[in-house]
Amino acid sequence: MKKQFETKKIAVAVALCLGASLVSAQPGPIKIGVVTPLSGTYTPIGEQVKMGLDLAAREINAAGGINGRKINLIYEDEEANPAVATQKAEKLFQVEKVDFLTGTVNSGSTLAVGQVAERNNKLIATSVSFADSITGDKCSPNVFRVNARAGMQSAALAAWVDKEIPKSNIFFIGPDYEMGRSTVSAFKRASTEKGAKDVGEVFAPLDNKDYSPYFGQVRAAKPNVIYTSVAGNDTVRLFSQMEEYGLNKGVTLVGASGTVTSQNMGAIGKSANGFVTGVGYSPKLDNPANKKFVADFQKAYNKLPDLYGADSYGLLYFYKAAVEKAKSTETDKVRTAMDDLSWQTPQGTKKMRAGDHQAMQDMFAVRVENGEFNIVGRVPSDQAIGPDVCTRF
Amino acid sequence: MLESLQFIYAPQIVNGLSIGVAVVLMALGLTIIFGLLDVINMSHGEFYAAGAFISVSLMAMGVSFWFCLLLVPMILVPIGFAMERLLIQKVFHYKDRHILTLLLTFGVAMVLEDAYKIIWGANPIKPSAPISGASELLGVMFPNYRLFLMGFGALLIFSVWALIYKTQLGAIVRASAFDKDMSSSLGIPVMRVYALTFALGVALAGLAGVLLAPIYSVFPTMGRDFILMAFSVVIVGGLGSIKGAVIAGILLTQLQSISSLYISPVWSDPLVFTVMVLVLMFKPSGLYGGMKNA
């Protein structure tokens, strides 16, 4: 009798152990790596990325997670440096075994990390990088972009410039790397097609301290529109130095959507007034989803979201929708689910184009007026997105 | 031709000069600290940032910019003094002190940079210039603040030069640098002179921070902005030489400024470093010898 009891006890113990191992075989939280600049000139952008992702993760986790699994975000500082970004991404894939990776800001970092993802057979998405090449000639089956690329921003901005200042003379100032070259060439193409004239260009190094040495070239070109795609702290210097030298007198300043953001607007001050950009998001967008998002964001961080915050927030819902559709976090299944996926964001419904992994969305022209981004124009998603030129998959 | 001279070259040269003054202000502290202590201060840029951050905070409390010019160096002197006494003198007597002090100050730089991020946040801050507007000279606009910077900077550089070469205090400093043992046997408190000179270098970096903040804005990594250029200037000018720093600073920034009219801006840094490499190859002591030889 006693022996029987012993056997029973052992059986129960074995069953418990088996059960425990079964439970531990049950997947834990979904790990998402975030490689984003937390230091350097793009810190303000990295901060918005973090705020957007954190907010979405909190909401999703509070509502029960994705397929019952909580989201766990693991941050690494990429310093807006592709060399650092690839190391950090490799570490997240190999050591932390993340299921998915996002956060890269510098377009060079996104391209480099995309290759790391291909080697590790994982998927990444950017919610910030503009360079057209990411979903164009350097597209990757493992890379998705949920934000608007340079070409889409240019379409909206070029339409506004053509309407307000027809046949304008445009001078271009870009940061000297992938994103700068890409945004300038995209806007140059979009605006010259509409009759504007290209009167010159200059590409300054990232983290440039003084732009005044290039003002000679700008003055000599006599533009009435200056387009720029510098971002972060660089914009603060460029705009205040232009103001210092009176270079912005009689000139309309336009540029990429990353140039003036809620993070650097305070430091730029009144020099930002009148700046017009083509962008995929404004806190002023009038729809219920955005109103809720802006209110929650302000409650959490006591500041307004900008496009990076909004697109990073929307990104987690994109991943959630894909994993729920795939019923798995496996790379191939999630990729198939992401193709042609439609999902809800503060900007309305976005759709992931399967051909090049570029999200489709409406674009806006917005003008900075006393610290606010007022919407002054709109281009529907199908007109803004442009052709699919990806041939790799 | 005359028009391009007036509207393109003249402003370009003046812009170059205003950056040149900024760079020389940075290089001045570096070269003094090296000339006297043989210490390569890698945290110099972070003390420049310290000056900018402290001035921004003081101005937020209502202190005027002009008073900051006086107050910030006074705040930084004891900090620099303490750093020399508590950190640098600990490794100063080792044989491989060049490497040790370099690593030590590099570590301090990294700690300071993160401290700024924690205290003031990562977003840029832009103090408004205390002198606004622009003056028209020969039909070209020059920002008044930059004109002030050039004048004030030149005065400052001259004062530091006069302090070291024309006063008794400067003679003591130079004597301590030239022969430590002899000076201390003559009753000069050499260790205190070293600490004070280091503090003077740090205060100069901080003062540059106050002066340049309205032009370049304030953020935690701003210390990296001028540091490479300042080191090149110190090397080209001759380690420890004030005259060398001034001449090299102005030469190199003019080279950058004028060349950027013709070549892509990314090439102007390599151009400066090429000059530095050439100087190192053919005249390693720089254009002018060190303070010790003066």
UniProtKB/TrEMBL annotation, chain A:
Keyword annotations: Amino-acid transport, Signal, Transport
Signal peptide range: 1-25
Residue ranges crossing the lipid bilayer per the database entry: none
Domain of life assignment: Bacteria
All copies of domain Leucine-binding protein, residue ranges: 29-371
Gene3D superfamilies in UniProt: 3.40.50.2300
GO terms of biological process kind: amino acid transport
Family according to the record: Belongs to the leucine-binding protein family.
Protein's name according to its UniProt entry: ABC-type branched-chain amino acid transport systems, periplasmic component
From TrEMBL, chain B:
Transmembrane domains' residue ranges: 12-37, 49-77, 98-119, 145-164, 193-215, 227-252, 261-282
Gene Ontology biological-process entries: amino acid transport
Annotated membrane topology: Multi-pass membrane protein
Compartment(s): Cell membrane
GO cellular component: plasma membrane
Alphabetized UniProt keyword annotations: Amino-acid transport, Cell membrane, Membrane, Transmembrane, Transmembrane helix, Transport
InterPro entries: ABC_transp_permease (IPR001851), BCAA_transport_permease (IPR052157)
Major subcellular location class: membrane
UniProt-recorded Gene Ontology molecular function terms: transmembrane transporter activity
Pfam families: BPD_transp_2 (PF02653)
PANTHER family the UniProt entry points to: ABC TRANSPORTER ATP-BINDING PROTEIN, BRANCHED-CHAIN AMINO ACID TRANSPORT SYSTEM PERMEASE PROTEIN LIVH
Membership in a protein family: Belongs to the binding-protein-dependent transport system permease family. LivHM subfamily.
This protein's name: Branched-chain amino acid ABC-type transport system, permease component
Lineage: Bacteria, Pseudomonadati, Pseudomonadota, Betaproteobacteria, Burkholderiales
